[in-house]
Amino acid sequence: MRQFLRLLKRFIPPYRWYLVLSIAANILSALLNLLAFSLIMPILRILFRIDNQVTEYIPLSGYPFSIKGITAWANALTNDFSWYVSHLIDTQGASFTLIMLGIYLVVMTFLKVASAYLALYCMIPSRTGIVRDIRNQLNHKILQLPLSFFSEERKGDILARMSGDVNQVESSVMSSLDMLIKDPILIIIYLVALIVISWKLTLFVLILLPVAGYVMGTVGKTLKKSSLNAQNLWGYLMSQVEETLGGLRIIKAFNAQDKIDRRFVKANEDYRHADIKVSARYAMAHPMSEFLGTVTMAIVLWYGGSLILNNTGGIDASTFIYYLVIFYSIINPAKELSRSVYSVEKGMASMTRIDQILMAEDKIQEPEKPLPIQFEDEIRYNHVSFKYADEWVLKDIDLTIRKGQTVALVGHSGSGKSTMVDLLPRFYDVQQGTITIDGTDIRSVSTTDLRGLMGNVNQEAILFNDSVYNNITFGVQKAALDEVKQAAKIAYADEFIDQLPDGYDTNIGDRGGKLSGGQKQRLSIARAILKNPPILILDEATSALDTQSERYVQQALENLMAVRTTIVVAHRLSTIMNADMICVLHDGRIVERGHHEELLKLNGHYAALYRMQFGNP
Fold first, then answer.
1. What integer pLDDT is reported at residue 10 of this predicted model?
2. pTM of the predicted model, to two decimals?
């Protein structure tokens, strides 16, 4: 429960007044319930002639604030109520008295249920608001975390935390919040009433309750552990679904449907077995609490009856019946409380998984006092080294890129090309050395200002399930339609956009699925053109295209690169032969640099790459 209290401390402050009002309404509801129960004694004593000892009215004042004082005040109140009922019978008759008691019961019940409804209603904004805040914080954190975090996590598992785990917190924890507030209030108020009626009998009850609480608490602890395992298996199952949706083309091409299906069936069965354990323990809450409550009730009935029969309890038969009614009223909130505790333990396992994202460390730290930055002169990699795990991916990279230059990075897969360009916008931070722009370390400026200088066109065009217009203007605050059309024209995208059913308002589908590869790439180039960044990063922007699409895209890229400093990660050497400088990376180091013709004359790594693609030069 400590984790649950920490959860409330984190998320409840904006809704604290709803919580206060709910607590007040629950207290009022419990007190009104006691007043409704109070009918039992006068009915038994007066109407059914169990006891005729009501003699005179006792003033309800002058009692000290203590257990004895409260007990005396309660006895006086009971006596006065009985006196009034007796007087009413003598003056108005038994039938009229029953009518008045019935009206009293209806009024008390109406006020009780109205206050109970108010208590529940006040919890709705808190419950739904906390779940909304968790989702918002998750989404915000996902947007803020560095790419390195997601390279170590399954996308499907993250989706499971955003959906399944948050839903589990809502259904298990937040839906139990009103019970966790109401039930302890009812138990405390009823327990105080029991102490006032008979402290001896209540002391005996208090010896029994911890035993029942210990038994139920033990089951609750095992429930959280089982639930955490089940939620982890659910995340793994969702990651398989995400992989299947993303790889359907390859799955069908290799006739691997049966293999993927068997893998899913096994993972689904593992989750089912884990869920059975959780559900079985959760289902145990109600029967266990009911059984323990019945056992306690039977023991209290035996012990209280013995006190009355022996005249040692200080209470009469009608008061004992009232005591039993109140005690029985404790059993139901106690059962609900135990189920709520079990439900919370189950939901907190999901909160543990959510906190793995919310509490994840953001390794890309913003400077406390960010420096202003402009790009007027050069970008410099100064003895930069970087590793993802234990093996160095980049080793002592030293490179200067002058403003207006086009610098190409080539080399075999895994040589460190993409890592080099990922370090510039601080998708990752260097571990040794520095990267500077005009002499300013990029770690001393805000990432917003830094990335505002750059535009990216990647190998896979990253588009969104939205209109053409919104995809081109993505990341730009305000853009007129004429500006968007001009960007599309420069990117050679206007001709196919004009042929779409709704032109620039056409929805392009999930990840741009309604467009061809070349069309998607030209849209991403149009997006970069509209942003108009001084620094352009092209990460194998044409490697996945056919010859005709490549020609269109290459022309669009040349238009985009014309007045910008460009870093090109290239696989096809034909696209970078005119670069101002070509850097050849091998095993994390720049082993050659120069113009195309200079590198061919060296007859080294670049010449070998050239021969692989074109034959002998």
1. 82
2. 0.68
